[in-house]
Amino acid sequence: MLRYLPFLLVLALWIYAFIDCLNTPEEEVRGLPKVVWVIIILLFGEVLVGPVAWLVAGKRRHAPAGGSTPSEWHRNHRTRFVAPDDNPDFLNSLKEENKKDEALLKDWEADLRRREEELRRREKEQGEG
């Protein structure tokens, strides 16, 4: 199995680069037209030149918004996570769901009582008739 691993890795990179190139909008492609990049990836995929060239030079990489790194943004914008049992909105939604479930259960019980009464009445009528 290990002797097939290099071939499978090359094939995976080849497929990834090909699909990535096809899904990339034309305005994000650098250097050459998108069609030329697809041809390069397909022709030179077995030796990894095409896929590596696409990943290194073909696609425009985006810098984070505002020029900041994600870690810097997280340092400046701390969000406070609340456990569900401490979140009042979540607890209120549970109470509302509970009320709906109780109302539904009461309706079902009333319907069951009505059906049982109807069955008893029918049995009485059949017993008398």
Could you outline the blueprint of secondary structure elements for this entry?
Layout: H1 5-23, H2 34-43, H3 49-58, H4 70-76, H5 88-128
Helix pairs in contact: 1-2, 1-3, 2-3
What's this entry about, in short?
The protein contains five helices and no strands. The mean pLDDT is 85.
Describe the structure.
The chain is mainly alpha-helical and 129 residues long. Helices cover 67% and strands 0% of the residues. The protein has 5 helices and no strands. α2 packs antiparallel against α3 (49-58). The longest helix is centred in the C-terminal third of the chain and has 41 residues, at 88-128. The chain starts with a helix and ends with a helix.
Structural class: mainly alpha
The largest sheet is: none
Query: What overall form do the CA principal axes indicate?
Result: elongated
Strand content: under 5%
Helix content: 55-70%
Number of helices: 5
Sum up the structure in keywords.
mainly alpha, 129 residues
